């Protein structure tokens, strides 16, 4: 069974110093075994890091590796953000020591973005860096978290403040596993996909307008979103330039997440942020009214939120301290026409107020 359907799977190479492939499609996880003769060549031991909900899947991958002659073991971590702590990382390091993992061995991260971020971080730091294969199981993981090489954990001071750039040697995005992903997580991940459509690939917008659930064209949508991220990462591994465009919709989204104490799903906050950013561009004369409206219409059709009513003063304060905002100025990724992102710094207050009103927020007189 291993390898069946291989030819029909989609492959995207993420360029860079050490290019790697993202394999997308049904059964992609079964290619883990064949990696032992390519990018995992020389691996004697491997740790398969996963959270309890993905235990069945991880167990299958442990067996696959064992069949290929690798002494593999599962390492269980807490689910979701609870995986991304220094204490959990320390626990995994102890496990790797117990398993006798050396520099020539490997880590496999299996799960949503939280677990792949942790697994990547542990791989980056164990013996100063062992190979990691990511097996993302959420849409967000497949199109965003598991590729690009950013890994990390959270601290009391904030999310993702401790981490390392450590690209995987391969990413296996098995769309079969999405069948078990909760619907709300699927939809939230699709917010990153539609974002990629707006900044770089209008075909994504057409596909989602034809089927806003994203179910009909899941593989093509994921492939296209992966290509957008791969292009940006290939040009800018260390996130100093074009990669910033991936933050379309994220300035407001990060503020909503913080003000709501991370009670919103990231993708849901991004959805509102896209509507907000579109209105800003409309105000700046960069998008037509029809292009602005296309954002809200599509985001709503996808079942994602387009409105957020909170404390505007507070949101603006938080947006100013967004770690990606570089200094005190307010920076937004906006579109100068669909598919053409650029930075808008310190927009007029009237434009900001109009964008806030567009997501349903009231503006004090
Ligand atoms: N490294 C990066 O570049 C990057 C980019 C974006 C996001 N992230 C990180 O990704 C994380 C969010 O990732 P996420 O949205 O995948 O959330 P998550 O990892 O918290 O997963 C969400 C939930 O879905 C469950 N789940 C995942 N796949 C499943 C499946 N196939 N079947 C059943 N349940 C499944 C998980 O167990 C979890 O309960 C955040 O920590 C964020 O900081 C990292
Ligand atoms: Zn995001």
Automatic annotation (TrEMBL):
Keyword DNA-binding: no
CDD domains linked to this entry: DHQS
Enzyme class: lyase
Any GO molecular function: nucleotide binding
Keywords: Amino-acid biosynthesis, Aromatic amino acid biosynthesis, Cobalt, Cytoplasm, Lyase, Metal-binding, NAD, Nucleotide-binding, Zinc
Domain 3-dehydroquinate synthase N-terminal: 75-187
Assigned GO CC terms: cytoplasm
Domain 3-dehydroquinate synthase C-terminal: from-to ranges: 189-325
Entry's Gene Ontology BP terms: amino acid biosynthetic process; aromatic amino acid family biosynthetic process; chorismate biosynthetic process
Cofactor mode of binding and number, as noted: Binds 1 divalent metal cation per subunit. Can use either Co(2+) or Zn(2+).
EC numbers, comma separated: 4.2.3.4
Family per similarity comment: Belongs to the sugar phosphate cyclases superfamily. Dehydroquinate synthase family.
Protein's recorded name: 3-dehydroquinate synthase
């Amino acid at each position: 069974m291993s390898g069946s359907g291989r030819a029909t799977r989609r492959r995207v190479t993420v360029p860079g110093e050490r290019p790697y492939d993202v394999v997308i499609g049904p059964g992609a996880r079964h290619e883990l075994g064949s990696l032992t003769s390519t990018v995992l060549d020389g691996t004697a031991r491997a740790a398969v890091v996963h959270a309890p909900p993905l235990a069945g899947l991880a167990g299958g991958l442990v067996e696959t590796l064992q069949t290929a002659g690798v002494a593999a073991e599962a390492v269980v971590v807490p689910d979701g953000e609870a995986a991304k702590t220094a204490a959990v990382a320390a626990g995994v390091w102890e496990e790797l020591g117990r398993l006798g993992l050396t520099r020539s061995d490997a880590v496999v991260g299996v799960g949503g973005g939280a677990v792949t971020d942790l697994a990547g971080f542990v791989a980056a730091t164990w013996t100063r860096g062992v190979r990691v294969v990511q097996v993302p199981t959420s849409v967000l993981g497949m199109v965003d978290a598991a590729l690009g090489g950013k890994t990390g954990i959270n601290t009391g001071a904030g999310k993702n403040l401790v981490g390392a750039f450590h690209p995987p040697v391969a990413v296996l995005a098995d769309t079969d596993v999405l069948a078990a992903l909760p619907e709300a997580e699927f939809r939230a991940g699709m917010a990153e996909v539609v974002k990629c459509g707006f900044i770089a690939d209008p075909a994504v917008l057409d596909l989602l307008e034809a089927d806003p659930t994203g179910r009909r064209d899941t593989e093509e949508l994921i492939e296209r979103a992966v290509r957008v991220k791969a292009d940006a990462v290939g040009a800018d591994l260390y996130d100093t330039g074009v990669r910033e465009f991936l933050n379309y919709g994220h300035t407001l989204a990060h503020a909503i997440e913080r003000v709501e104490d991370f009670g919103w799903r990231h993708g849901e906050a991004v959805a509102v942020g896209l509507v907000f950013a579109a209105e800003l561009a409309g105000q700046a004369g960069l998008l037509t009214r029809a292009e602005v409206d296309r954002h809200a219409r599509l985001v709503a059709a996808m079942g994602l939120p387009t409105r957020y009513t909170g404390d505007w003063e507070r949101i603006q304060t938080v947006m100013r301290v967004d770690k990606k905002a570089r200094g005190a100025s307010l920076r937004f990724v906006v579109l100068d026409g669909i598919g053409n992102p650029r930075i808008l710094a310190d927009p007029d207050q009237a434009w900001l107020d109009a964008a806030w009103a567009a997501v349903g927020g009231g503006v004090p007189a």
